[in-house]
Amino acid sequence: MKRKIICIGIIALSVTGCTHFKKGEGDMPYEIVEDNSGETIKEGEVVELSVMARTEEDSVVWNSADYDRPALVKRERSMFKGDLFAALGLLSQGDSAVVRINIDSMEIKMGIPRPGATRSRYLVYSMRIVHVVPKGQLSDSLYAAKVDKFLEARLEKLENDEPAKIKSFVTSRNWDPVTTGSGLEYCLIQKGTGPPPMPDDTMEVRYTGMLMSGKMITSASSPCKITYDMYGTTRGFNEMLMLMPKGSKAKAIIPSVLAYGRKGQGEDMAIQAYTPLVYEMEMVNIIHPLRAWKTKKMSRS
Length: 301
Hints:
- The protein has 301 residues and is of the alpha+beta class.
- The protein has helices spanning 84-88, 103-110, 140-172, 235-241, 289-300; strands at residues 22-23, 29-34, 46-55, 60-63, 71-74, 96-102, 122-133, 178-179, 185-190, 202-211, 216-227, 249-254, 277-287.
- The chain has 2 domains: 8-136, Chitinase A, domain 3 (Roll); 162-293, Chitinase A, domain 3, CATH 3.10.50.40.
- It is built from 5 helices and 13 strands.
- It starts with 21 loop residues before the first strand and ends with a helix.
């Protein structure tokens, strides 16, 4: 069983106020903030880590907290002295550290573009090693089976924990949602007028889709024409549309079973497995097929 493991060679972070850096290999200043006993991470081992990424100007590039779970990384062979994989080799399970990686080296040796308009010399990573899947003396095939078992258990836990995460989200925001038979939860902020749309209608909708952390994943600030079950829409999104007459505004939590489930979605798995989605939606207009046909006929006459 193959799983996609996210390579964090593209992640960067800086933490202000850290002044006790040591010189690592190549051009890699680092500070180990918490040092626990244990075997350091070996090449080929899979790691769970919490990491936030910033430029030296303190601009966040990536944060694992946005996804409500640690990142998954395999320690590959270093591509240059003092790269992030070399930094992982300094750490063991439970350790935390701040590491600065040379941007020019990442760009030249790894083809990773400089983020934004930064003039930083370094991409600075702050990380905590949550868990290491140790290889020990296992063969590659036996270790691959061990990693698959770990990833399967991780997915099962994410699936089992999802209802509690949704409940905590709703409670913390004092929502009083309606729950449909499918598990969609929504609050009607503004009641519309007239009947809700039918599946063969065309709807003009404004919406913003987010992760529960607040990280935006999609939006349409101007009314976007959508049809029921249109390519790229999810079951939960379609169900919510059918509950909204013209002029309605609503917010909804779409559980992963009505979204992207176990597979996730997007480039570099922007929506990861068992991730509920939060939507704010406005039904601006509903265009019925017969009305649209009459309008088109009148414009031609």
